[in-house]
Amino acid sequence: MGKKLQSSPLLKPSASLSVNADIVAAGPPIPAIDRIKLFSDRQWEDFVLEWADSLGKSYQRVERCGGSGDMGRDVIAFHHSPSTDWDNYQCKHYGAPLAPSNIWVELGKLAYYTCRGDYTYPRRYAFVAPQGAGTKLANLLRDGAKLRTELFANWDTHCRAQITTTGKVELDKGMRRYIETLDFSIFTYIPPLRILDEHAKTRWYVARFGGGLPDRPPVPIPPPVPAADEAPYLRQLLDAYGDHLKTTLSSPAGLPNDGRLREHLVDAREHFYSAESLRAFSRDTLPPNEFEKLQDEFQTGVADEIRQDHADGYRRVLAVVKTAKLLQMTAHPLATKLTMRDRGGICHQLANNGRVRWVK
Predict the structure, then answer these.
(1) Residues 6+ away with beta carbon under 8 Å from 175
(2) Is residue 168 domain-shared with residue 38, that is, in the same domain?
(3) For 102, which DSSP code?
(4) Across all residues in the chain, what is the average pLDDT?
(5) Domain for residue 144, yes or no?
(6) Residue 210 near residue 293 (C-beta atoms within 8 A)
(7) Whole-angstrom Cα distance, residue 310 to residue 356?
(8) Residue 84: its pLDDT value, please?
(9) Is 51 contained in some domain?
């Protein structure tokens, strides 16, 4: 008879694994440094574009060229016009740190297309990859002379037939002489942690990695004298007050002294400034047009109330703002930052833009 097999002890799930509502709904959070390794090539180029565009004063214009016909350029950033002074951010999304074999064809493309005159030689050329550069490549990028020598040695294997689909690019005397004139100190790489740290300060970060919005800054106090950009909604409010009083008001000075309408005007300005503060907060922390989408939702939510018959324009304002304060906005990314003042203020923003009218 065969030897009796010994049974192994049963392995049980860990009792120390803790969960909460967020983990049950979405799973454990993935750190940003690991999440970028899961990006597609297109997502990685978009991420690098967002980062480069956030560098602000460093560049006048940033563009994405990735795809067929990019001539070896992925994300390009121009310092000024005319566009002869520019930087190239070459995006590589591989499952391991970059090695020298990953870059020879890119250097070959740069030499070929600049020699041909398709574009000028860049001021800086940086490789960006989610796992950075391996030690061998990092050391090579610090030594321009050696980098050039290694490019010559690897030309036939990695460049000759890979630069263009229209034919082979030989390293003849002309091409060699041209490459010898090029400045190889422009080549470098950017560690992914540095890019993540700078991207975290952009309006794109939360949309890509989550983690919630930061705290809103304090809402500014309206100045005693209304600003020029307040004129449209203030004019609409004066028309609404005049409709209520059955008179024409050319300025707030014509309001009665009982305080009711004057108090409403003060509140309306505070609400408007609160909503403008939320607009600025959205501009700094979320992708473009998110605040405009919120305004669209409010306009849709109060549309029926605006159409209702009201005794006068002032009563319409009160009813519409009251409806706005009851709207459910839980799906919008700004939902957790939206205050009651913002809700009223968005109604006045809509009036300021001519999208709603208080007096029919």
Answers:
(1) 111, 112, 115, 169
(2) yes
(3) G
(4) 92
(5) yes
(6) no
(7) 15
(8) 72
(9) yes
